[in-house]
Amino acid sequence: DKTSLWGGRFASGPSPELVELSRSTHFDWRLAPYDLAGSRAHAMVLQAAGLLSRDDLTALIAGIDALAADVESGAFTAQPDDEDVHTALERGLLERLGPELGGRLRAGRSRNDQVATLFKMYLRDHAKAISRLVRELAEALATQAERHMGIAMPGRTHLQHAQPVLLAHHLLAHAWPLVRDLDRLTDWDARVGADSPYGSGALAGSSLGLDPEKVAADLGFSGSTANSIDGTAARDFVAEFAFVTAQIGIDVSRLAEEIILWNTKEFGFVTLHDGYSTGSSIMPQKKNPDIAELARGKSGRLIGNLAGLLATLKALPLAYNRDLQEDKEPVFDSIDTLEVLLPAFTGMIATLTFNTERMESLAPQGFALATDIAEWLVRQGVPFRDAHEISGACVQACEQRGIELWDLSDDDFLAISPALTPQVREVLTVEGSLASRDSRGGTAPVRVAEQLAELRARVASH
Ligand code: ARG
């Protein structure tokens, strides 16, 4: 078998069943440009170590560039006998340069250190792409928040009316987790970018006097791996990346779930843009929030990819084992999933219409101002324990009579407690309630305006 990278000690070629099982070109082909970049960097350190002449290096680089152009145009593709992308590209180089020159490049490197490095490079590029998409979603939320700065809505805990909050405050509460996801991607990149495995060889390093730091710099890393066994066997960088993608999916799914609820007849809080909703094949009246539902569903898939990857890594002995070839498909799928999901989701958010009158009219209902009564009493010097009781008694009186807190008369209030003077009415409006919550991070309009500026600065810093 002339095209295999490992035929020497074998009397027969691989069985067709093995070839079928072993092949990974259908998914690792996306590493081809990174493999070729690695080959250029490797050729240069081979020359620096005296293992290639200047002319050899020039010819090798020209051959790699020609192959890269053919990969790019689709003129060069993987053949059924190519085990993986590295094997296929080696074949392409041998075809272009002949066995004498083409055969020199493999010195001092292994697919084990290659694939670990190329995978990092690929993930680093897609971390940037995903970061941009997450930024766009956070910006869409910020724009909607700005557009609805003065609008109140029912804030909920346990899905029950709790206290009125600003719609902008609630929308920004979905944006902050995305900011932390951006931070996570940046942190991850700093860790991964410090550590190029190229030069680790199969596991033990190289005897050929090659300079891994030089290769690392050429490939965009700030340093090379300190331990060649770790360099070839570690995949925590993949698991961590898969976690961040899963967390992004989960953060989006929480917003998705609320959009689905808000879009029901019962809530009636939002209207989806026609371009970002779907119809039913049988029910002509339907307008469905499919993007939000797909976001909710795909978050499960992202979690599955992370869980599958961790299962592959669990108890895997050092150093490289072929199990590690299973590390790529899950995280490629997570990347592909987010790269189609996020643009659609951002479009849905950017074009969402809020039924603000309905939100505002529901904001104070369900005795959502009861806490305001209690805190008003505390400001009058009443211990909170008593204040809580008194405010609870107001709720009970209202519930018995089927009225809201602001419907109680001055006499009703005084009968419940002498501390409840008519001044309590200043917090019995949504505006008064919102304005009073003016500590940092609170829902008072002045604080939410500050928060919006803070969020935008954080998003822009990525
Ligand atoms: N295709 C393999 C992977 O993705 C790399 C090849 C390593 N093969 C080997 N026999 N050491 O992990």
What does this structure look like?
The protein is mainly α. The chain folds into 3 domains: 16-107, Fumarase C, Chain B, domain 1 (Orthogonal Bundle), CATH 1.10.275; 112-145 and 157-361, Fumarase C, Chain A, domain 2; 365-460, Ribonucleotide Reductase Protein R1, domain 1 (Orthogonal Bundle). It has 18 helices and 4 strands. It has helices at residues 16-22, 25-28, 32-48, 54-73, 85-102, 111-147, 167-192, 212-218, 228-233, 236-262, 290-313, 328-350, 356-362, 370-379, 384-401, 410-416, 430-436, 445-460, and strands spanning 152-157, 160-166, 270-271, 353-354. The strands form 2 sheets. The protein has a two-stranded antiparallel sheet with strand order 1-2. Helix 6 (111-147) runs parallel beside helix 10. The protein binds arginine. Residues 24, 28, 84, 111-112, 115, 320, 322, 324-325 line the site of arginine (ARG). It catalyses: 2-(N(omega)-L-arginino)succinate = fumarate + L-arginine. Residues 21-304 form the Fumarate lyase N-terminal domain.
What are the key terms here?
mainly alpha; Fumarase C, Chain B, domain 1; Ribonucleotide Reductase Protein R1, domain 1; two-stranded antiparallel ribbon; binds arginine
Supply the number of helical segments.
18
The averaged pLDDT comes out at 96
**What class, by secondary structure content?**
mainly alpha
Q: Number of DSSP strands?
A: 4
CATH architecture call of the largest domain: Up-down Bundle
Which sequence of SSEs, written as H and E, runs from N to C? HHHHHHEEHHHHEHHEHHHHHH
Q: Look at the structure and name the CATH superfamily of the largest domain.
A: Fumarase/aspartase (Central domain)
Number of domains: 3
**Span from first to last CA?**
50 Å
Helical proportion, percent range: 55-70%
InterPro entries: Arg_succ_lyase_C, Argininosuccinate_lyase, Fumarase/histidase_N, Fumarate_lyase_CS, Fumarate_lyase_fam, Fumarate_lyase_N, L-Aspartase-like
Catalytic activity: 2-(N(omega)-L-arginino)succinate = fumarate + L-arginine
Subcellular location: Cytoplasm
GO molecular function: argininosuccinate lyase activity
